[in-house]
Structure formats: C-alpha cells, structure tokens
Here is the input.
Amino acid sequence: MSSIRVLLVDDQEIIRQGLATILKYAPGIEVVGQAGNGNEAVAQARALRPDVVLMDPKMPQLGGIPREEEVLHLLVEGLSNKEIGDRLHLTEGTVKNYVSTIIGKLQANDRTHAVVTALRHGLVEL
Here is the structure.
C-alpha cells in the first residue's frame, strides 16, 4: 500500500515543524514538502503532486488559492458541488464555501458567471 503524500503549508514554521513531526509517526503518511506561503504552496504542489495539501487558509500570499484553483477547474468541467466534494474529498458545505469565495473574488453573480469570467481572463482553460 502506498503512502498518502502530504504537503504542509503554513506561514508559521513552528506549526509546520510540529505537524511534520506528528505525521512522521503516522503510518501510511509521508510529508513530501513544506511551504511558508501561498506562492510557495502553488510551486510545491505543482512540482511534488501531493495527494493532500494541509494548508492554513488564512495566510500571506495566496492563502487558500491552490484549493480554489482546483475547485474552479472542476466548476469549468461542469461538476456539481457534491461531485467536486467527492473528487477532492471535501464536504459539500466546504465546496459551497470555496465556490462563494471564487464568485466573490471574480466579482461574479453566480457560478456560471464565475466560470465565464475565469475563461475570459485566462485563469482556466477548457
């Protein structure tokens, strides 16, 4: 059985170190990387392709952005909140929160408008 590959993201190094220490002793979990801000998280996630990103959503430089990008890509594919949740291992309520955040950041009226806006601005591709 392969390990679950985890990327730790938090702007507080002591938190990252503490989580890494705890997870080191968890069977079936491997910490593959750490990042101190959202920009680093995006780069690490692209390079390391972790199974899970354990991230503080309220931190400097793109807090929560990688997960929002994943949700946005799945919105473009036409998936429902439930389908997105199943794919990303999130509750439907968490997905709704991400969708609301995306709609707000894109200054869209609804999820369809958010998808159109994202496509027009080159944030995602079909």
The chain has six helices and three strands. The mean pLDDT is 90.
